[in-house]
Amino acid sequence: MVVLLVVTFFLTFAVIQFLISRSAKPAGESAGTAPPRPPHRLPLVVGGFKLAENVLYHPGHTWAISESPQLVRVGIDDFAAHLVGKPDSVKLPVPGTWIRQGQPAVTVERAGRKVMLVSPIEGTVVDVNSTLQSDPSLLVKDPYADGWVMTVQAPDATTSFRNLIGGALARRWMEDAASSLRMLMRMPSGALAQDGGLAIDDLTPYLTKDWDKIAREFFLT
Q: Which terminus of the chain, N or C, has fewer Cβ atoms within 10 Å?
């Protein structure tokens, strides 16, 4: 009889503890449900330009992010967006086209002048952001999200990613690019912020060098 009472006591205690632990869960979280993902981190501001930390960068100021083992999304960075300024049109590669890492893949036209930007990845274009055809300004307004350029099926994505930069190295690279750009500008006060603020939207009117030289230096084209 005593043994039965002891067993009953411990069973009752275990049930009470279980009910308490369930009631202590946050509202909206049920047993077996993973906690909500943290919100997406805002880009850093380095040398006056936004630097997204979840992508890897090509030295030609384009970026890549893996969406699956072989599918990669591609875009231009905020530095390129500020130099392009106010695009009139964006020419994208045709899906099915094989593109090589470091080779021109996207053409942006502004006031009759063409700007070519390289692909950060090698592979076959499977999709392009057709919204850029009707609204080319999206390329520079939101370069890390809605202004993405294309997705690429990259059979050797791992090798391509090894040639890109991220983290502290990307921050240093962007600082160096911003510093080099300052040397090529007739800068009004605050055009290219150095204290955590953003550069003005369109830097092209303040450049002192020929545009072709600027493109070769920063876009590697």
A: N
Write the CATH number for 125: 2.40.50.100
Residue 132 domain boundaries: 47-219
Is 5 a domain residue? no
Name the region of 51 (left: φ>0; alpha: ψ -120 to 50; beta: rest): beta
Domains held by the chain: number: 1
Q: Indicate the length of the chain as a whole number.
A: 221
| Mean predicted lDDT score pLDDT of the chain | 80
Q: Does the pLDDT value for residue 202 go beyond 80?
A: no
φ/ψ bin of 65: left (φ > 0), alpha (ψ from -120 to 50), beta (otherwise): beta
Q: Where are the beta strands (DSSP E) in 16-68?
A: 44-46, 49-51, 56-58, 62-66
Of 156 and 47, the structure prediction assigns the larger pLDDT to: 156
33 vs 9, which has greater pLDDT? 9
Q: Which residues contact 101 (CB under 8 A, 6 or more apart)?
A: 58, 118, 119, 120, 121, 122, 160, 163
